[in-house]
Amino acid sequence: MSQLYYWNYLREQNLWKGLKVLFQRLELEPVIRLNPRVAIKTHFGERGNLTHIRPQLIRRLVDLVKEAGGKPFLVETTTLYPYKRFTAEEHLETAAINGFSQQTMGCPIVIADGDGFEEVDVPMPNRLADCPFEQVPMAKGLLEADFLLAASHVKGHIHCGMGGAVKNLAMGCVGKTGKALQHRSTQPVLCEAECVGCGVCVQTCRCGGVELADGKPRFTDKCLSCADCLFHCPQQALRWPENYHDRFISHMTHAAYGIWNHFKGRTAYFNFLLDITAVCDCCPPAGSPLLEDIGVLSGLDPIALDQASNDFLDKGLVRANACMPEPPDRFGKLYDLNTNHQFVVGEKLKMGERDYRVEELSL
Ligand code: SF4
Ligand code: SF4
Questions:
Q1: CATH code at 188-239
Q2: Which phi and psi (to 5°) does residue 307 adopt?
Q3: In the list 3, 169, 180, 212, which could disulfide-bond 259, CB 3.0-4.6 Å?
C-alpha cells in the first residue's frame, strides 16, 4: 500500500506553506543531496490557456528543491500539434507569456527534446502484449537530470479521462517520436462519404502528414497522429477511430513506465487538483473549472497518486452551473472511457500500486 499526503485546499487554503509541509513530509532532502540535478516537469499551458498550474506554485517547488540542496531546472517538451509550443522557440515564448521564465522561476528552463526529435531510447523491462513499441524515446535533455519531480495538473482529457502524473510522464517527457507512438491509436479515420476534397486538412498539417490523392486525403508516413486536421475539417469527415481509448491509455502508460523506470527511486510527484477543467492545458482556453479546488496530493508512487486523484475527483464539490457526471470516474464517463485502465496497466507493469492510504497534513 502506497503512502500519500494531502493538502486540503478548502480547509487550509495556504498552498504556499502547504507545499513546504508536503515536501518535507516526503523526506526528499537526502535523495536530492545525492542526486542534485532536479528536473521539475510541469506543463506551462498552451498560449491562451489560463488554468494550468500557477507559476507561483512551481516557483515554490523550485525554491524548496534549492533549500534541499538541489540544482533545479524546469523541463518541458514540444507538442505534436502545431500551435504555439510546436518548436522550442515557440514553447519558450509561450512559457514566458504564461509566467514561466528563468527570471520568474529562478532556474533554467529547458525544452528537453530540442527541435522535437532530440530523443534517446530508454528501456521498458516489462511490456504487455498490446504495446507495439519496445523502448520509449525519452526527451534527451532529461539525461541531464539525476532526479525527476513531476508537478502535474489534474484535469480531464479526451483520450484518457483524467490526466495527472502518468500523463505528465508519458506525453510530457518524450519528444515528437514518443508522442506519435502513443498517439498512433488516435490517427483520424476518413469518412469518404462526407469528404469534399477541399484540402483544408493538407493545408492545416505542418509536417506533410496528409496529401490529396485522386481528390481524397491520404495519410503519409510523416503523419504524427496529432489529429489537428480532424479539428479543422469543415465537413467533419475525419473521425476518431472506434474503440481506441484502452489502446491509447495502455500505450501512454507504457511510455510513462519507461520514464519512471529510467529514474527509478529518484522521482517524486505533486498532483495539483486545482482549476479542474474538462479538457487539458493544451487547450486555449480550457473553459471554466467544473469542480471546486481540492488541494494537492503528493507521493512517490505515480499510480497510487493518480488513482487517489481520480477518487478525490469523485468526492469533489461540483461548481454552481457546472455540468459534471456522477461518480464513479466522472471524467471517464464524460469521455465514455475507463480512466482506471491507466492504473490497472501501471500496476501490471509494476510501476506502482492502486492501494493507497492518504494522510491529510496541516500546519
Ligand atoms: S478537410 Fe475534410 S473535407 Fe476537406 S479534404 Fe480534408 S477530410 Fe476532406
Ligand atoms: S495529417 Fe493530421 S494527424 Fe497527421 S500530423 Fe498532420 S495534422 Fe496531425
A1: 3.30.70.20
A2: -60, -45
A3: 169
pLDDT over 70 percentage in the chain: 100
Q: Where do the domains of the chain lie?
A: 2-182+244-361, 188-239
CATH of segment(s) 2-182+244-361: 3.40.50
Q: Which residues line ligand 2 (CB under 6 A)?
A: 188, 204-205, 207, 209-210, 219, 223-229
> Which residue's alpha carbon is at the smallest distance from atom 6 of ligand 1?
201
| pLDDT, tens digit, 9 for 90 and up, residues 303-323 | 999 999 999 999 999 999 999
| Residue 257 backbone phi and psi in degrees, to 5 | -65, -40
Q: Is the pLDDT of residue 13 over 90?
A: no
Number of C-beta neighbours around residue 10 at 10 A: 11
pTM for this entry: 0.96
Contacts 24+ apart (CB under 8 A), 202-208: 204/82, 204/228, 204/229, 204/232, 205/82, 205/229, 206/82, 206/86, 207/82
Residue nearest to atom 2 of ligand 1 (CA): 233
Distance CA 346, CA 343 (A): 5
Report the residue among 229, 230, 240, 244 best suited for mutation to probe ligand 2: largest number of ligand atoms under 8 A from its CB.
229
For ligand 2, pick from 190, 223, 239 the residue to mutate: most ligand atoms within 8 Å of CB. Answer: 223
Q: Which residue from 194, 201, 210, 218 has its CB within 8 A of the most atoms of ligand 1, so it is best to mutate?
A: 201
A 10 A CB-CB count for 221 gives 6
